[in-house]
Amino acid sequence: MSSHSQISPAYQQPITPGCIRNCIRLRGMPYSATVEDIMNFLGELSLYILPNSSHMVLNQQGRPLGDAFIQLCSPEKAGIAGLDVSKGGCHKKHMG
Question: Which residues face 49 on adjacent strands?
């Protein structure tokens, strides 16, 4: 995430297990997708990704499965990402 600017401390919240629904799942990504590709895909919403919270799912051989879990700064931002592309979100948007 070297090209990603750091999130200001105002967006960082203490984490209490089970109470914040701010994680999104990306499915069907190209196997060659990188964290930078994910940030480009999310566009402006990438500004709200929490530090060290982009997790790509790998198989037992260490190869990407085309899925990722991304933690955003708030449930509201995660909700926006989950909206249909026609409403400003990323649902049904194509990465490549």
Answer: 72
Whether the model pTM is above 0.85? no
Could you give the C-alpha distances from 27 to 8, 10, 20, 24, in angstroms and in order?
A: 28, 30, 21, 10
Kind plus residue range of the DSSP H or E element containing 75: helix 75-81
Question: 26 and 70 in contact (C-beta within 8 Å)?
Answer: yes
Condensed to tens digits (0 to 9), the pLDDT of residues 50-93 reads 999 999 999 999 999 999 999 999 999 999 998 888 888 888 88
- DSSP assigned state of 91: B
Q: Which of 25, 42, 26, 35 is nearest to 2 (CA)?
A: 35
Whether 71 and 22 have beta carbons less than 8 Å apart is answered as: yes
Residue found by looking up tokens 């105002």 in the block: 10
Q: E strand or H helix at 40, and its extent? A: helix 35-42
For residue 21, the one-letter residue type is R
C-beta separation of 8 from 73 below 8 A: no
